[in-house]
Amino acid sequence: MPRLEELANIALRVPSILVLDLLYKCDIEGFTENLKAKNEDMLFKYKYVIWNMYYLGHLINVVVLILPLRHIVTLYLHILAALLLYMGHQISKDYVREELQYGYEGAVYLDSLAFNRFVSAMTGENQPVTCDHSAFIIFSHVSYLDSLHHVRCPVPQVIELYRLLAVGISLWNQFAVPVLFSVFWFVLFAVQLFSDTMSAGAATSHQGFLFLVLTSVSECCATPYSLLGLTFVVSYLALGLLNLCKFYLGGFAAIQNENVMHRGVTEGVTLLLLALQTGLLDMQTLQRTFLLSIILFIVLTSTLQSMIEITDPVILALGASRNRSLWRHFRGLSMCLLLLIFPVFMAYKISQFFHMDFWLLILVSSCMLTSLQVTGTMLIYSLFMVELFRSDPIESLDEVIYWVNSISRVLEFLVALCVVAYGTWESLFGEWSWMGASVIIIHSYFNVWLRAQSGWKSFLLRQEAAKKISSLPRATAQQLDRHNDVCSICFQEMSSAVITLCGHFFHGNCLRKWLYVQETCPMCHQTVRPAPAGQSQASGGDPAAQREAQPESAAQEGHQKPSSSSTEAQGDDDTQQQEEEERDGLGNRDSKEEPAEYFPSIPSAEAPLGLFMVLLNRNISWLKAKRKSVS
Q1: Catalytic residue flag (residue 418)
Q2: Active-site hit among 220, 245, 367, 487
Q3: Which residue range or ranges hold the RING-type domain (predicted)?
Q4: How many separate domains does the chain show?
Q5: Which domain holds residue 24?
Q6: CA 414, CA 431: separation in Å to the nearest integer?
Q7: What is the mean pLDDT of each run of 10 residues along the chain (631 residues)?
């Protein structure tokens, strides 16, 4: 029963939106101008009546749209009863006319019993019901007049109790606005597609089915109501595509772990703002079709970026965790191949469809960057798999991964910088607007300044870590023999090692990876500092002596954490606990999170807000230019 109520709540509100859409398409100005051309006096009499009826129709449909479900059901039952009464009246009228025409010689008059039953059924039995029902239709509202003053009483109480935002969210959920407008748009699109298919005929085979579908879609976004419906439809389609990607990569469990930023909202809002900013509603059908194809191309590019954000950690985790499932590897690689080939195909098609200019070049470059990101991901995955089949680890693996990620991020940064430069030029010397200026400012902050700042910090952090490692003394063969232990980070044998100022031995690469995350020693949590020149020369001494001498100086500098105790027993406990943490954390090569911990790279700016702003800023001016060229 609740399912039936949900369906009724949507289905019974769709006609109101359809009528509002038809009223918006009505050209009242043109109708009054035609009326003025025919008769000036008639225009004077009926002009205000026409406009009042037009606004009254909007008001009535809005009221019906926001009515509670039980009141809508009652209203439709009254309308159905009125239609049945009208149909009964017309049937009776036609019957009487035909009987008068044939001179009362019909078959019903030959059987008096049947005739009496018919007359009794039409007059005697149904008349009280008809009268009562008519009385209810006409006079029922009088019984509610005494209760009208109670309507205004709960409204301030509800607003004060739940606040305006909570009331809006409650109404949004109660009316199921996204589903309602999506159903409305699908009904509109089905009718329009059927009409275009029937009217096109032989032209359909010449133009192609895709062009016919795009034309029907453009016809179904000519009003604000239909554009809002298309926005929700695109959001749901993007959400379905992202969920399908999650299901293909990880099964049902991946769909349950829902990311709030991967719900199709970015794609829908992008389409809505681009359509409003470029004046999509004011165009003719052919112009709207071409512009809508470009906007849908941008939205699809945004969806592909979200799919990359879903696929990238999955494929890297498969490479780093030594997962032996061939089926999971096949699914990840096939998704990467799809994301590699499809953007190139899209860029080729859009370049064949339109004349190449600067903004189209930026649009195509965003697609190519998508393929470049997938290429970098597959290269890192290949390096992980090569290391898996090697007996010894690759020493410079983290450096290779870092520079692969860096090349991708730098190219994205250059594209974003070109967008800002050209957008600023267009705003200063071309068509300027507050909307365009605000988009450029936000885009400059999120996609240029923050990206440059985070990338530079990452570069300095790696330079500082490399400087510390190069300044630390190298352990000799005698020291390694006396130490006779494994690296505390990776738990592998040490053929070469560096010695920290606190006297602990680590692989140079392992310690460098650790210093990318934090600046303290993995064993005693003292701050790792570059070794002075004197201590570097005296590194051949006993590391135990260094371990005895360094805590005092470190304590004086205030860098030692409170968790380290002065007693040797508690120090051993801390060391054991730290080793367990290392074994569960960075030292575990089977962890799926290893790429994020070991190989920090320049943060990606393709977060939903940054991606949305870069897509919006890249294409608004170009879409306006395309609109002028098409017109």
Answers
A1: no
A2: 487
A3: 487-525
A4: 2
A5: 2-151
A6: 24
A7: 80 91 84 70 71 87 88 91 90 78 61 61 51 42 48 57 69 84 93 84 64 88 91 93 90 69 80 86 87 89 89 87 83 92 88 74 78 88 83 73 83 79 75 70 76 81 80 85 83 82 84 80 82 52 45 40 39 46 40 35 39 47 54 49
